[in-house]
Amino acid sequence: MQCHVGSPVEGEDFFNRKKEINAIWRALDSDSLLLLAPRRVGKTSLMKHLVYLAPDKGYQASYLTVEGAADEADFMERLYRAVAENHPNIMKTLVDRVADSPLGTWVKRVKKVGALGVSIELTAEAKKHWPESMTVFGELLSGLETPWLLAVDELPLFILKLLRLDDSGKRAVSFLHNLRELRQNQPGVRWLLAGSIGLDTVTGRYNMADTINDLRLTTLGPFSVHSADDFLQALARSYGLDLHPDVRSHILSRLQWLLPYYIQLVFSELLDVDNRPIRVT
After folding, report:
1. C-alpha angle with apex 160: 63 to 220, nearest 5 degrees?
2. What is the pLDDT of residue 267?
3. C or N terminus of the chain, fewer CB within 10 Å?
4. pTM of the prediction?
C-alpha cells in the first residue's frame, strides 16, 4: 500500500469502506444514486473503486469527471469518450449503430484508435441537439445485454458553469430535466452522481430540486476510530515503520476528523522520521 496525499487512490491502495460499498451495491439494484460527502473524504477514490469492482457485480462501468466540460455537447462527448476508453469493443458496437440513429446526422468524425478503440467528435451543430445525443446514448447502452454503471464526478460544478452561461437558470434546468428523463427511461443504466459540493445544495439554492428527486441519497463520512487505526497500521506495515499503539492513538485523537486524506498527510510526515520505533513522549 502506497501513501497518497491529495490524489485519488486506486487498486490495492484503496482501503476498507466495505460497509459503504455493500450499501451502494444494494441501492444500485433499484436506483441511481447521489453520493454526498465532504471534501477530502475519499469520494473520487470510492467511485473509481466501484467501477473497478463493477464486473464482479454484473455491470459494465465507466468513471468520468465533468468539471472541465465546456457545455452540454462537451458533457456528452465526455460520456462517449469514457465508454470508449474503458470498453473499446462495446463502443465499436455502439458506433456501428450510430449511422442509423439521429446521432449519425451530426457526427463530425468517428475515428478508430488502434484495432478496437474509437472516439467520437461532434459537429458544432450537435450543440443544438445535445438532448437527442443524450437519448441516443441511453438507448445504445440499454440495448446491450449487460447493465451499466456510469460514475459521474463533479456534476455540481458543471451545473454551476451552466448557470454562469445563462443566469436565468433555464439552461441548467433543461439539462438536469433531460438527464433525469434519461435515468428514468433507461432502466438498464445506473448513475452514481457526485461532486466536491453537493448537487442537492446547488439544485436547492436555484429551485431545481425536482430535477434530482428520482435519485437515492447515499453518504460517505470519515473512518471510524477502528478503521482509521487499521489504516494507519496497514500504511506502517507497507513502509516497514514501527508505529506503537500509543502513537496511533495519539495521532487519531489529535486529528479527530478521521478522513483518509488527513491520516495520510500525517503519515507522510512520519516517513521523514528515521526508521525506528516512535513513541509518544
Report:
1. 50
2. 86
3. C
4. 0.82
